[in-house]
């Protein structure tokens, strides 16, 4: 199998800073003052990708997402399945203790492949999807009570979109309570067999809140290159208002 990856991160139409970050093949956005960033890579063995969304409205969200991306870049190339839980514990603690007087944090959603097996991990509401045979499936779980109620049919999308707690997270990296560090539980799906033609999409909620799963599946199914496709997804979010930072990673399996 060959894996072709492309990442784009954009500040959007409203925010003044880009508090998202991403890591692809050991590369991440080192300069948090950059409003946009793009990178492409190819690999014939394994690939590790992740997206991070610094918590909006909290102090140092861009710092938190950079810490998480930088620590992941250091272990890129190793067997991530053996290190993911230690990575989460250590990164959570470093972010939580970075500023003991204020809360700061970041989401985490990752995809790793090795020996033609897929592994998906997340903490928070950034997502990883898999498009296989024209069907788009979310492989991660939102740690967001309001969005979970929407998915379960308790709330309509319109009700969820207006809910005052719609952006509240029950888990993220940097979690603490009254100064005590709390290690967040990671959601994981492991050991899915790779298939030629699969497309793996990672994104922050700057994309998933503005572009429906149906529209994302339609764009992914066009068959364009991953470079062209991430631009189409980014433009779809910008055209829908671009009210948040937008980060998209697309990995094609050939």
Write the layout of secondary structure elements.
Layout: E1 3-10, E2 20-24, E3 27-28, E4 36-43, E5 47-53, H1 61-75, H2 84-98, E6 108-114, E7 117-123, E8 127-132, E9 135-138, H3 145-151, H4 157-162, E10 176-177, E11 180-181, E12 187-193, E13 199-203, H5 205-208, H6 213-220, H7 226-239, E14 246-253
Antiparallel strand pairs: 1-4, 1-14, 2-3, 2-5, 5-6, 6-7, 7-12, 8-9, 8-13, 10-11, 13-14
Helix pairs in contact: 1-2
Description of the molecule:
By secondary structure, the chain is an alpha+beta fold. The chain has a single domain, classed as 4-Layer Sandwich (Phosphatase 2c, domain 1), CATH 3.60.40. Helices cover 27% and strands 31% of the residues. It is built from seven helices and 14 strands. The chain has helices at 61-75, 84-98, 145-151, 157-162, 205-208, 213-220, 226-239; strands spanning 3-10, 20-24, 27-28, 36-43, 47-53, 108-114, 117-123, 127-132, 135-138, 176-177, 180-181, 187-193, 199-203, 246-253. It has a six-stranded antiparallel β-sheet. Strands 3-2-5-6-7-12 form a six-stranded antiparallel β-sheet, with helices on one face. A hairpin with a 2-residue loop joins strand 10 (176-177) and strand 11. Helix 1 runs antiparallel to helix 2 (84-98). The protein is globular, with a radius of gyration of 17 Å. The N and C termini lie close together (6 Å). 48% of the residues are buried.
Gist?
With 254 residues, the protein is of the alpha+beta class. The protein has helices at residues 61-75, 84-98, 145-151, 157-162, 205-208, 213-220, 226-239; strands at 3-10, 20-24, 27-28, 36-43, 47-53, 108-114, 117-123, 127-132, 135-138, 176-177, 180-181, 187-193, 199-203, 246-253.
